[in-house]
Design goal:
This protein is an alpha/beta fold. Helices cover about 35% and strands about 25% of the residues. It has helices at about 5-10, 15-40, 60, 75-90, 125-135, 155-170, 180-185, and strands spanning about 45-50, 70-75, 95, 110-115, 135-150, 190-195, 205-215. The protein has a seven-stranded mixed beta sheet with strand order 3-2-1-4-5-7-6. It binds S-adenosylmethionine.
């Protein structure tokens, strides 16, 4: 694994990492499965799981084509340790790096697919992360995402009120991001599909999921 960048040390959240799997097991069982399956549907080529956390996506990688090569990043050392443990139990080798999404340790045009599952809520600098994702994707490659975003009306007010405390407890997670509109506005990508999903429980509700395709021409951001 690569060396620890300073930014990852700042974002270390041992308590959040310790409770993440037990706290999400109910949601994994009740509604997350079809959306994780959406992220891995017909995967082929070289794949990056961005901000892999405890490795919740890894279980889904085991079932896909043998020709696929998997990489993951996770800057929090406590999350990354759990992801590495999960990776060891799988038939699919997964190489995990510690770098944040804003400074990816890969060559240009390395990946066919980048997967972002509930990670843009936490990335401090989304614009830099998108620039890096565009750089490491091959032309025509896909960014697939599943993200919780700000809700409407009273639910949005609840999210705003909770956000300062939530960020401290949940490893820097923002409740009021407009990730869907931010991602589709990125001129390095064309929108293949995007959908708002009224699922989840306030304050983690609603979600957007979708696919963006990296434009073949050089980045126009
Ligand atoms: C809510 S967890 C989601 C984990 C996993 N993707 C999943 O689907 O369960 C968000 C993850 O983003 C990671 N993260 C925080 N800052 C990041 C950054 N700058 N770049 C990449 N990942 C980051 C956190 O450490 C955390 O593991």
């Amino acid at each position: 694994m690569s060396s620890e960048p300073n930014r990852s040390q700042e974002s270390s959240s041992p308590l959040f990492a310790a409770i993440y799997d037990p706290a999400t097991v109910f949601f994994e069982r009740t509604f997350l499965r079809p959306h994780r399956e959406f992220l891995v549907a017909d995967l082929d080529g070289t794949v990056l799981d961005l901000g892999a956390g405890t490795g919740a996506m890894f279980l889904y990688f085991d079932g896909v084509a043998a020709a696929t090569e998997f990489h993951a990043t996770e800057p929090d050392p406590h999350m990354r340790r759990q992801a590495a443990e999960k990776a060891k139990t799988l038939a699919t080798p997964i190489r995990i790096e510690s770098s944040p999404a804003e400074a990816l340790p890969y060559e240009d045009a390395t990946f066919d697919v980048v997967i972002a599952s509930m990670v843009f809520c936490t990335i401090p600098d989304i614009e830099s992360a998108m620039s890096e994702i565009a750089r490491v994707l091959k032309p025509g490659g896909e960014l697939r995402f599943f993200e919780h975003v700000v809700d409407d009306r009273w639910r949005a007010r609840v999210q705003s009120a909770l956000e300062p405390l939530w960020k401290r407890l949940a490893g820097g997670c923002h409740l009021t991001r407009q990730t869907g509109s931010q991602l589709v506005a990125d001129r390095s990508f064309d929108v293949v599909e995007i959908e708002r999903l009224n699922l989840g429980v306030t304050p983690i509700r609603p979600f957007v999921r979708g696919r963006l395709r990296k434009r073949a021409a050089s980045a126009t951001r």
